[in-house]
Design brief:
By secondary structure, the chain is mainly alpha-helical. It is built from 6 helices and 2 strands, in the order ααααααββ. The chain has one domain. It has a two-stranded antiparallel ribbon with strand order 1-2. A hairpin with a 5-residue loop joins strand 1 and strand 2. Helix 2 runs antiparallel to helix 3 and helix 4 packs parallel to helix 6. The radius of gyration is 17 Å and the shape is flat.
């Protein structure tokens, strides 16, 4: 059971307020906005990282920034492109612009051994795939939104690793190389 946000460090509470401010902003009220999905990801993160490490504050702030970027790009590109059409963007990064494909590489998780880090990383990848589906055009703002999500994922994984080390859990030792072989840490 995650600790209530009011029992967290004040810096984490302050970072979380970004989700509350975003919810009140008119641009994030539409059904196409991914803002609530990012907040759900933040709730998962708070549930998985029990310590109040400064890296968790950074992860939450980066996640809020990613949510704002994603919501903005969904609204801007959808309104400009669709004019009321119902369209779905290509979710295979290899079929998108090279800058989008390059940004998506930062969200790969298949190389991680099964466990908490892989699960956490895969959630960020899933949110990015949802964003690709929501944005039918290759827009520079989409690349920025994905890069913001990569920064949030990197901070979240560091916070989880620090939490695992601080709680006495074993450190991640092995990762799987893309060819399937194990690489010792």
């Amino acid at each position: 059971m995650p600790r209530p946000i009011l029992e967290r460090h004040p810096s984490i509470q302050d970072a979380w307020r970004g989700f509350l401010r975003g919810r009140m902003t008119a641009g994030f009220q539409t059904s196409r906005s991914p803002f609530s999905r990012y907040r759900q990801l933040g709730e998962v993160l708070l549930g998985q990282v029990h310590s109040d490490d400064p890296e968790l504050t950074i992860a939450i702030r980066d996640l809020v920034r990613a949510a704002e970027s994603a919501s903005r790009v969904v609204e801007l590109t959808w309104d400009a492109w669709s004019a009321g059409q119902d369209a779905v963007g290509e979710t295979d990064p290899a079929k998108r612009h090279q800058s989008i494909a390059a940004a998506m590489r930062g969200l790969w998780f298949e190389h991680l051994a099964a466990g908490e880090l892989r699960d956490l990383s895969s959630r960020f990848h899933g949110v990015a795939i949802e964003l690709l589906a929501a944005v039918p055009v290759d827009d520079p703002d989409l690349t920025i939104a994905i890069r913001d999500l990569v920064r949030a994922k990197d901070s979240a994984v560091r916070a989880k690793v620090f939490d695992m080390i601080g709680s006495g859990q074993p450190k991640p030792v092995n990762v799987t190389n893309p060819d399937g072989s194990l690489k010792s840490g």
